[in-house]
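Ticket #4471: complex job returned nothing on first submit. Input attached below:
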Amino acid sequence: MQYKTIHTFPVEEEKKESIQIDLRKQLVTTPYFHSPKIVCGIDLAYKENLAAAVIVAMDHSTHEIVELVYHVEEVMESYVPGMLAFRELPLILKAWEKLTIEPDVVFFDGNGMLHPRRMGIASHASFFLQKPTIGIAKTYLLGDHKPLGLKQGEYEFMEDQGEVIGAIVRTQTGVKPVYVSIGNYLALEDAIRLSMEQVGKISRLPEIVRQADIYSRKILREYMQSPKTI
DNA sequence: GCGACAG
DNA sequence: ATCTTGTCGC
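Support reply: We reran it on our side without changes. The output follows.
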């Protein structure tokens, strides 16, 4: 698998913000989207500085897992809110190269445009992956919204500086909501709809995101027991 | 100045 | 993200 070169990693500290601002101008805001056959979920697990980036691909309607690839490596960048992509994307791209199937849409653990510079990891990654991407965040980062209803499927748009940049979505009745935003190449309404279609019975997270979450920890655990089998 | 802050 | 005991509920 090959991706279009935007810039290389690591990125010098003083250039990170300008890269985000530049990429923001290239977001595609007039997209259309077809129903996906294959969806992809990406998540990382950590043990101190060792991290496992795992990509799970599954059938959107049957939830059958069709492929799983990963990459384990020491991460060099520390976590800084708003700069998550610079820490996690290098590993994600190395795992992505091992993927043989062609996903229609990619879910991320984190935000897309729901970000101070509209360039969360889901948006940033889209320029490398050249696929529609969706950001699913489990906790609040920024933005204002009206009070959210308690019933499953209810949502409110999130705004910042007068623009809609995502949505707070009640994926399960009475359960803590998630924050959905587009990464790139699709509309927010479609991102919300696809996210809800992925939500199962036992989790507030879309199933593909939950699987990536589970497997990232499992892969890292197995790697630490026998590192040579990478 | 102070608090907030995806993973 | 990760570290962790107990606890509530189907």
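DSSP finds five helices and eight strands in chain A. Closing as resolved unless it happens again.
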